[in-house]
Amino acid sequence: NFYVISRYNRSPLYSMAVFQLASEIAAGVASGKP
Questions:
Q1: What is the arithmetic mean of pLDDT over 6-24?
Q2: Cα–Cα distance measured from residue 15 to residue 19, given in angstroms and rounded to the nearest whole number
Q3: What is the C-alpha separation between 23 and 21, in angstroms, rounded?
Q4: Residue 19: partners with Cβ closer than 8 Å, 6 or more residues away
Q5: What is the largest CA-CA distance in the chain?
Q6: Average of pLDDT values for 1-9?
Q7: Does the pLDDT at position 20 exceed 90?
């Protein structure tokens, strides 16, 4: 959740990077790629 990440660190760039990383990890897990 972007809001939760932004509460931890107020930098929008950091929040977006963590959010995108989490999204990519979730997509990889869902597709079954190693």
A1: 88
A2: 6
A3: 5
A4: 2, 5
A5: 33
A6: 81
A7: yes
**Cα 2 to Cα 22: distance, rounded to the nearest angstrom:** 10
Residue 11's pLDDT band (boundaries 50, 70, 90)? Answer: confident
Question: Taking 90 as the threshold, does the pLDDT of residue 10 lie above it?
Answer: no
9, 21, 28, 29 from 34: Cα distances, Å: 30, 16, 8, 8
**Residues sharing a CB contact under 8 Å with residue 6, sequence separation 6 or more, in sequence order:** 12, 15
* Exposure string for 10-29, b = 16+ CB within 10 A, e = fewer: eeeeebeebeeeeeeeeeee
